Every structure is written in structure tokens, then in C-alpha cells.
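Customer escalation, tier 2.

The customer says the design service returned an amino acid string that "doesn't look like it belongs to this structure." They asked us to rerun it and document both sides in this ticket. The original C-alpha cells are below, unchanged.
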């Protein structure tokens, strides 16, 4: 039985499935990778595919499935998932973890501080801009929480469009600026601090849950503590995957993970990928030379179901998550559908494959 209770009528192997099988996954992170420089019609037919590793995958046929008399049997999937569209409020929080420190020049140290950009459903008409310190739409909450990790040598501001799309759809989205890997790091970005970032994500979760639980706080009762996801791109994706599934940093509060061009992180004691773990959505550009596709294919193969792989055909490392269209719009739609199903229980998985399969642009493999 497939997602949404839909049965498969055909068994086939598609060119996309063959391509995944031909890209032989390798265990773990095999070698150091180049790092990101500073930023510069008809109803689809669901088909069951047999892919490498025994994965039962959903795909979309371009042919229309007609009902009796040649009429379409069902409407096309919605262009935008989620029942609500909100204004987006933005608060900048300074979260200090006194139990950990960072080392600065000349041997100085200071408490580990995470400047965190918090977007949330707010009162007011929806728009494409952030509303600083806008009143939250608390009466329509609480809302699921998504904590997002940025890539090496950049800041969360680079991903503003993607993060806004999640907040507009009814999520509280926290994007911490990692103290030593961001573009603003004292002395320049230092990738050796990557191993400390999974605890940063868990710390942000704890602090935000505390702020939401305090009755008089501006964010009181805004966050649903039972529905939390982590997400990230590049090194931020490695950070999120470690929080979701590594043996050393696994945070049991996390109920879903979205990994954008990420990989397994070394030094975390391996990955459990235990049955019953967080559902996984992995997204990867097939022309990415910074995080090669094989790294994503490796952890996707190792992960337990439910899991989904969105391949952005010909896309590189950063543009599809920041500015490149139509790739960014596809990423927004697929991630929202994934969050809606696994955090809001909105029963939209039957549309996920349609949203992710765009001829010549993207292809989705699903193992729900």
C-alpha cells in the first residue's frame, strides 16, 4: 500500500530510478569536500518503481489517467500546500549557552552565543516581507517548530525566502547563526567547529520551548512541543542530520528532518537510523560539486522509512535553496507538504510525488 492509501497499478523502472542505482552510494563521508565560498496537464498516474536497495518508490507518469468516458478521474494536486497563509513576524533573539564556550584570538573565550532569527505566523495580511516584532497569531497556534542550520561561511539571511515560505504556511522557524562557522565569525569562518553545532540546535530547541511555555513572554504558547523538525543546508544539513539520527547527538524531541545537500558528519559515533526514527526528506542537486550527490545517496540508502529523496536535475549546491527558479519554488512546495504531513498530520502525502516530479527539473523517490 502506498502513501495516502493509493495502490500501484504498474511496476516499472524509470530512467530516474536507474540513474540513482548507477550512482553507487558509498558509506559515510569518504573524503573532505570543497567548501562553499562566501555568497556571491491531466491527472498524474502514480506508479510503483523498483529501485536500488529494495526501495519501493513512487513516481509520476506524464500520461493522464482518464476515468469513464475519457473524463479525468481526479483533480490535479494543489499548487500550494497547507490550509493557512500567514503574515510573517521576525524577532532576533540572543541565546547564550553559559555551559559551553568559544575560543577567540589570543586565547580568550566567551560563552557560546547564538543570534537566532525567529520567523513565526503573525497577525496581518500575508506578504513577501518580514514584519519585525509583529504580534504573533497565537490564537491560531500553537505551531510546529522548525530549526534550520545555514551552510559554511554564510548566514541565515541567505535562505530568507525559503524560511519565510515555511512561516507563512504556519510554522515557527528558528535559524541560529553558528558562532564560528558563519560569515560573521570572529577571525573568519572555522569549519572545525562543525562538531559543536548539533548541540547548538538542541540548545535552540530547549530555549524556544522555554520561552513558549512562559505565560507572559511575547512568544507564549506559540510553539507545539510535540511537533519539532530540524532542517539545514550543506554544513547545516550535516548538523540537522546529526541531531535527527546520529548516535552521539540524537535529540528525541525531533520528529522530522529535511536535509538540503548535506552528508553524514564524522566524529559523531555513527548513525543509528533506527526504525521509528524521524521521517527524512533529502534534497540534492545532481550537478553539485561541493556536496557530491553520492553523500546524500549514501545516508538516504541507510535511513529507515519513511524517507523521500528529491533530486534537482542539473542543479548546483546553493542556488536552488536561495534564488534559482523554478527549483526554489519546488523545494518550497515539497518541504511544506512533507512538514504538513509529518508535523501537522494533514494527509497530503498523496500529492508529494506530483509536487516533486517536474519534467527535466526534478524527480522524487518516495519510500513512505
Amino acid at each position: 500500500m502506498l502513501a495516502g492509501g493509493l495502490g500501484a497499478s504498474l511496476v516499472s523502472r524509470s530512467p530516474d530510478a536507474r540513474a540513482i542505482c548507477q550512482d553507487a552510494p558509498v558509506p559515510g563521508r569518504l573524503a573532505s569536500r570543497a567548501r562553499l565560498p562566501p555568497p556571491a496537464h491531466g491527472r498524474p498516474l502514480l506508479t510503483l518503481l523498483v529501485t536500488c536497495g529494495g526501495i519501493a518508490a513512487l513516481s509520476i507518469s506524464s500520461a493522464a489517467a482518464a476515468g469513464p468516458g475519457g473524463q479525468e478521474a481526479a483533480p490535479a494536486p494543489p499548487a500550494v500546500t497547507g490550509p493557512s497563509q500567514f503574515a510573517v513576524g521576525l524577532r532576533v533573539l540572543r541565546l547564550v549557552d553559559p555551559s559551553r564556550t568559544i575560543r577567540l584570538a589570543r586565547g580568550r573565550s566567551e560563552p557560546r552565543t547564538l543570534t537566532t532569527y525567529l520567523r513565526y505566523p503573525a497577525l496581518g495580511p500575508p506578504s513577501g516581507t518580514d514584519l519585525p516584532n509583529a504580534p504573533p497569531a497565537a490564537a491560531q497556534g500553537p505551531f510546529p517548530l522548525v530549526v534550520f542550520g545555514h551552510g559554511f561561511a554564510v548566514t541565515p539571511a541567505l535562505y530568507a525566502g525559503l524560511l519565510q515560505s515555511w512561516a507563512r504556511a504556519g510554522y515557527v522557524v528558528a535559524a541560529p547563526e553558528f558562532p564560528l562557522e558563519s560569515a560573521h565569525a570572529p577571525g573568519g569562518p572555522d569549519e572545525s567547529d562543525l562538531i559543536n553545532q548539533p548541540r547548538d540546535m538542541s540548545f535552540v530547541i530547549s530555549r524556544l520551548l522555554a520561552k513558549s511555555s512562559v505565560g507572559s513572554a511575547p512568544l507564549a504558547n506559540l510553539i507545539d512541543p510535540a511537533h519539532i523538525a530540524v532542517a539545514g543546508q550543506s554544513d547545516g544539513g550535516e548538523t540537522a542530520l546529526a541531531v535527527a539520527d546520529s548516535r552521539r547527538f540524537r535529540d528525541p524531541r525531533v520528529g522530522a528532518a529535511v536535509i538540503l545537500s548535506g552528508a553524514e558528519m564524522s566524529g559523531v559515533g555513527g548513525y543509528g537510523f533506527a526504525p521509528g526514527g524521524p521521517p527524512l526528506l533529502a534534497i540534492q542537486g545532481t550537478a553539485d560539486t561541493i556536496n557530491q550527490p553520492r553523500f546524500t545517496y549514501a545516508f538516504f540508502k541507510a535511513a529507515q522509512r519513511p524517507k523521500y529523496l528529491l533530486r534537482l536535475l542539473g542543479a548546483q549546491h546553493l542556488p536552488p535553496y536561495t534564488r534559482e527558479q523554478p527549483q526554489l519554488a519546488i523545494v518550497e512546495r515539497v518541504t511544506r507538504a512533507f512538514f504538513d504531513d509529518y508535523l501537522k498530520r494533514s494527509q497530503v502525502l498523496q500529492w508529494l510525488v506530483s509536487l516533486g516530479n517536474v519534467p527535466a527539473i526534478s524527480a522524487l523517490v518516495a519510500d513512505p
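Tier 2 assessment: The sequence is consistent with the input. The radius of gyration is 20 Å. The chain has one domain: 87-346. Sent an explanation to the customer and offered a walkthrough call.
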